[in-house]
Automatic annotation (TrEMBL):
This is Glycoside hydrolase family 13 protein. It comes from Actinospica acidiphila. GO terms for molecular function: alpha-amylase activity. Residues 20-406 form the Glycosyl hydrolase family 13 catalytic domain. Keywords: Hydrolase.
Length: 525
């Protein structure tokens, strides 16, 4: 193929609205029950009408799908369930014609156990050096080489018939790569170029802080500094090399970086490393004004010294849907176990989700919208015999897994399977058609119409800083440019600040013109 014009970095990513596409559940173009690239291409007009600036695709590469595509067997091929490389190239080009850029997901910490490198390693080839193989401990090597635990539960080691063990911080089907080996680094730089040459405008980096490992692979000790496999200093050399590649194409990075230390987090956003990183503290906050304001302030403060834009996200493919998460009276949510203290009030959760959408879209920086959030979808209960997420099995059934936020989208209320296509790979709950995009497009009070209007109006906030305004307890109010955002998280209606016009409201004002509880508005100053 001829090389397309490389993406141009004009700073679009600093204030972009980026829509996350989980291809398997977005839209099914061929009727087999699995979302695919044909389905995405057919829905590009919908995404253009929504007004998003870019699409972030979860891994679409060839994969055995033991972890939703995060077990990659070939980074240069599209999984046949989704389509072909030629279709991906058409999708990238067609989206760009509509003003929508493409961001792809790179999974550098590990590959699939079906990747050619790992299969060669199992056969005893030199590729063994590209992974972490070790003899076991104990009299007969029957114990794992160290005490590391998998992110999915259980030990982070699996023993092979020859007696050696290999490291996998996630599922056994996802062996960790040895990033101390130059071939691993070179291969990933080549993968970046492969996709940049096809017009991709950016890359999301999965588990970005986990790649480098202490070469001694010591036992984990709480408080060990440096950590044996999280946020190690040598990792920054990798991202400096990646940044040089991205700069050749005007492409950008967003890293999945979970770190409690704000100074360590900010190091990834230095001018010669990543452009942006996900902001998980905001997403993790309960529906509490003080906690949310503190998260916003801390986020802006940690980004300010390095000039990097913040990112804001309410939900993704790993997290319970916003309407369900906020529909708890105590809002107490444990992200590790997905457990709550009280049952869901979905009406309350939806009301808060509408307010949270206006809050996040008014903040300075980029916003990520997970597919279906613009429809107000709740978390779905998946029958035990239909759960596919390995987290469920690896936890012994104590973790419900992440499939509840991955249920295929409802497009058309009057069609089978709510217009998704064939019988979906995950079951859609009863009543799912009530959330269908075609029905919401006709309803001026729907979540979809709210998102469309908010994204259209978002430029009124300009690109300047945020100034907090005096507000009653439980209320967030701030100004940017000549626009105001007010969010009432208290339990009573509040008066609006002085303003010249009401631009957008998450719900109706009361009869006295006050802002009801769990509601947000945008105002013209």
């Amino acid at each position: 193929m001829g090389q397309p014009t490389p993406a141009t970095d004009d700073g679009w990513w600093r204030s972009a609205v980026i829509y996350q596409v989980y291809v398997r559940s977005f839209a099914d173009g061929d009727g087999d029950g699995t979302g695919d690239l044909a389905g995405v291409r057919a829905r590009l007009p919908y995404l253009a009408d929504l007004g998003v600036d870019a699409l972030w695709f979860n891994p679409w590469y060839r994969s055995p799908m033991k972890d939703g595509g995060y077990d990659v067997a070939d980074y240069r091929a599209i999984d046949p369930a989704f389509g072909t490389l030629a279709e991906a190239e058409k999708l990238i080009a067609e989206a760009r014609e509509l003003g929508i850029r493409t961001i792809v997901d790179i999974v550098p910490n590990h590959v699939s156990d079906q990747h050619p490198w790992f299969r060669a390693a199992l056969a005893g080839g030199p590729e063994r050096e590209l992974f972490h193989f070790r003899p076991g401990r104990g009299e007969h090597g029957e114990l794992p080489p160290n005490d590391w635990r998998s992110e999915f539960g259980g030990p982070a080691w699996t023993r092979l018939p020859d007696g050696d063990w290999y490291l996998h911080l996630f599922a056994p089907e996802q062996p960790d790569l040895n990033w101390a080996h130059p071939a691993v680094r070179q291969e990933h730089e080549d993968i970046l170029r492969f996709w940049f040459e096809r017009g991709v405008a950016g890359v999301r980096i999965d588990s970005a802080a986990l790649l480098a490992k202490d070469p001694e692979l010591p036992d984990f000790t709480e408080g060990r500094d440096p950590h044996p496999y999280v946020d190690r200093d040598e990792l920054h050399d990798v991202y400096r090399a990646w940044r040089a590649v991205a700069d050749e194409y005007g492409a950008v990075f967003v890293g999945e970086v979970w770190l409690p230390d704000t100074e360590r987090f900010a190091r990834y956003l230095r001018p010669d490393e990543l452009h942006t990183a996900f902001n998980f503290s905001f997403m993790s906050c309960p529906w509490d004004a003080a906690r949310l304001r503190a998260s916003i302030d801390e986020t802006l403060a940690e980004h300010a010294p390095i000039g990097a834009p913040a990112t804001w996200v309410l939900c993704n493919h790993d997290v319970t849907r916003t309407a369900t998460r906020y529909g708890r009276a105590d809002t107490g949510f444990d992200f590790a176990t997905k457990a709550f203290g009280t049952p869901t009030d979905l009406e309350l959760g939806t009301r808060r989700a509408r307010a949270a959408a206006l809050l996040s879209l008014a903040l300075p920086g980029a916003v990520y919208v997970y597919q279906g959030e613009e429809l107000g979808l709740p978390e779905a209960d998946i029958p035990l015999d239909r759960i596919e997420d390995p987290m469920h099995a690896r936890s012994g059934g104590t973790d419900p897994g992440r499939d509840g936020c991955r249920v295929p989208l409802p497009w058309s209320a009057g069609e089978p399977h709510a217009g998704f296509g064939g019988e979906p790979w995950l079951p859609q709950p009863d009543g799912w058609a009530a959330y269908a995009a075609d029905r919401q497009a006709e309803d001026p009070r729907s979540m979809l119409r709210l998102y469309r209007e908010a994204i259209r109006l978002r430029p009124v906030f300009g690109d300047g800083p945020l100034t907090w305004l005096p507000a009653p307890d439980g209320v967030l109010a701030f100004a940017r440019a000549d626009a105001l955002c007010v969010v009432n998280l208290s339990d009573r209606p509040v008066d609006l600040p002085a303003h010249s016009a009401l631009l957008l409201a998450g719900g109706p004002l009361d009869t006295a013109g006050r802002l009801p509880h769990d509601t947000a508005v945008w105002l013209r100053a």
